Amino acid sequence: MSVIISWIIALLLLIGAFLSLVATFGVIRLPDIYTRNHAASKGATLGIMSILLGTFLYFYQEHGHFNSNLILAIIFIFVTAPVAGHLIARAAYNSGVGLSENSVQDDLKGKEEYEKQNSSS
């Protein structure tokens, strides 16, 4: 059983490192703030969570140490990173940062005028 857990730990650490690397390339290569933000918030969040879970399993298996700080960190990142990514994208859109010329659709275009019309009546 110890060998299987060791393989799972190694797999989680490798997946986490790979997802963090992909997120880094996404931030460097993608054309606008919205796609970069998506790469950073999703890829890095899943990468960090995988690494923390692998670390938790390692310390629990090897030393019998239940580290509640790692569990709390996983929960904290799982809750806050998507919210922060959404708020950054929303702030960029509201401040007038444009989409890439390769973008096909702007779902929020015209929504402000619609909300202003409905809120005044």
Description:
GO terms for molecular function: sodium:proton antiporter activity. Pfam families: PhaG_MnhG_YufB (PF03334). Keywords: Antiport, Membrane, Transmembrane, Transmembrane helix, Transport. Residues 106-121 have a biased composition (Basic and acidic residues). This protein is mainly alpha-helical and 121 residues long. The chain contains four helices and no strands. The protein has helices spanning 2-29, 33-63, 68-94, 111-120. The longest helix is centred in the middle third of the chain and has 31 residues, at 33-63. It is elongated, with a radius of gyration of 20 Å. The mean pLDDT is 87.
Element order: H for helix, E for strand: HHHH
Major sheet size, sense and barrel closure: none
Q: Which range does the strand content fall in?
A: under 5%
Which descriptor suits the 3D outline? elongated
Organism: Rossellomorea aquimaris
Membrane topology: Multi-pass membrane protein
Protein name: Na+/H+ antiporter subunit G
Transmembrane segments: 6-28, 40-60, 66-89
